[in-house]
Amino acid sequence: MKLYKIAYKSLIAAAMMCAAGTVHAAGDDTEARIENLLSQMTLQEKVGQLNQLSGYGYHQAMVDAVRGGAVGSLLNEVNPEVVNALQREAVENSRLHIPLIFARDVIHGFKTIFPIPVGQSATWNPSLVEEGSRVAAAEASSAGVRWTFSPMVDIARDARWGRLAEGYGEDPYLTTVMGLAAVRGYQGDDLSKPGTMAACVKHFCGYGASEGGRDYNTTWIPEPLLRDVYLPPFKAGAEAGAATFMCSFNDINGVPSSGNAFLLRDVLRGEWGWDGLLVSDWNSIGEMVAHGYAADKRHAAALGANAGVDVDMEAHAYSDNLVSLVENGTVPVSVIDDMVRNVLRLKFRLGLFDNPYVDMATANRFYEPASLDAARRTAEESAVLLTNNGVLPLKNVKKIFVTGPMADAKHDQNGTWCFDMEKDRTVTPLEALREMYGADNVIYMPGLAYSRDRDTSHFDDAVAAAKAADVILYFGGEEAVLSGEAHSRADISLPGAQTAYLRALKAAGRPLVTVVIAGRPITLPEEKELSDAILFMFHPGTMGGPALANVLSGKAVPGGKLPISFPRMVGQVPMYYAHKNTGRPTFEMTLIDDIPLEAGQTSTGCTSYWLDAGLDPLFPFGYGLSYTTFEYGVPELSATEIGTDGSLTVSCTVTNTGSVTATDVAQLYVRDPVASLARPVKELKGFEKLSLAPGESRTVTFTLAADDLAFHNLRGERVVEPGDFHLWVDNSSACTKQPITFKVK
Ligand code: BGC
After folding, report:
1. Which of 29, 182, 248, 257 has the highest local Cβ count within 10 Å?
2. Which residues are catalytic?
């Protein structure tokens, strides 16, 4: 078992060492070669490199554009023969022979689909994220794709936002670890090697803070919050050598990201010294008009270029306007030259000048057994056991009643963003359970045809059939299309008649196991009462069926932990564990049904909670049960006082107190109880996933530097403030034990 006990600084240092090869892979003469090419380019050819088009097929208009040097990169072409044909036009028939880059949204696999990123995050196992990204890069690059628009490292604290499916959850630390793992997996140690793709860290920035969880919506993020929560995963990606970034659709404090010189020039290029390629989001330069920030597309082109967006994806704003904007002095040619340098640098790093073509002898290599195995393991480790009264793992069951709209949903279990997925390759839970228990022992009736189905007419027959079984396995959740881009929901409960169906199934009098497969947290308060166990999986991909069969049967033990809080009801969002304490934290609550009639105004104690939802989530960040139990000892510190440049180690003994070998995730949380800006009640600073045999104990050790406790104050300064700090090591953010205290002097 690989161990993760990563203090932030060492994490970045390791990533940078790994990335060093990537950055210099094209050779030390890269910059000279860039300058040489640049000196030969006309202004039109320069602007052509900044133009990215969505291209399908080899057709005359595209051939003309490529030969004429009017396009620098294409997205969405995945036929290697077409890739090679278009590349030949660029390399052999354009004046300067500059190769194209072919890009695609390969978000959680190309053909072999892994769990959606938030599901990968639920594994708390970055080596699996890295492996999945490596598989994605190998498959996609064998079809000619050398640039993926992934990973998304937007922090998501609002479960209504459909795009949280594409990221790693609510926490900056966990997101940073997982984002870096994805970059390593895609890019390897040398981007010019076959089987690699340029990563694209997106969406820069603040996209997950969209107001009300409505996609594309405005965001308002004060600078300390921006720097402490939203920027860290991007900063880490930049420092680790992520080859590209994408800016976001949203405006941030009134300025759309595509025109945000503060973010793109001052922070990304200036403070972080990043020299990669920054691409707009799809038409996001053009959308500055609808935002009310640009008068027209021409104005938008000037704003985008001057703010530092190198490549215009599909807005045609640059191709139509940049030449004349340079000619009239609105955009300096030096700005254009820098943009072109960034594009050419990526082409050199990818080795495209030397090896522009897909090798047809090894093209289209998909579904290697090891890739399918990695997809299954990732799905297994992503399973989060939310409740269990002992019904799981299944024991002594002869007949199983399998039901629900996600039991055999070959398309939908793959989740959002899998354009290249072939649904016939998907193995569903129904298929895997039939294989495991024998087809004759599995009774199947869907009950509901799809997740939004409201037709209750099959319930009676299903309940009658369920009575012939020893256990009911209900597979529900959300179809793929209910999360992802532009698919936000205002109600995040199980859609359609699913809860009504669970009520009906409960009446069958058999143990009821609810498996929820979804793209976001789902509110499950009633389902918790109705079910003997709830197993949650974010859309698990190609191998979701075998993974679920293994977990349900006990062949695999669930060890996933929530990467995002699960609210009781949607009115609690935004909900995240690292919230502030308020001046009136809640210790005791009077809930709505307990308030006496005509009670006085102050009868509830005047503390901070919801009368109808209390304070806590239904299931907190970091939470997830196992088929065994774990005991955490009292953490021991190597020092109780450190200087502002010092560090200490935290050791904690973890014991498997149950009867099966299983993994758990030891999580290190810290609180700064007195600071010049009120700090969150807890912040994750490290974690370690470990496997323990029954009765086995192991000591986990974290290194915590005073620098890990830094935050940004209202003057934008990063400070470590002396004082007492509290610390916990536990296996969920709920941290039920008393904290340990140490001091920074
Ligand atoms: C999405 C990006 C994606 C791009 C290209 C946009 O709509 O926001 O995440 O990479 O399309 O497909």
Report:
1. 182
2. 281
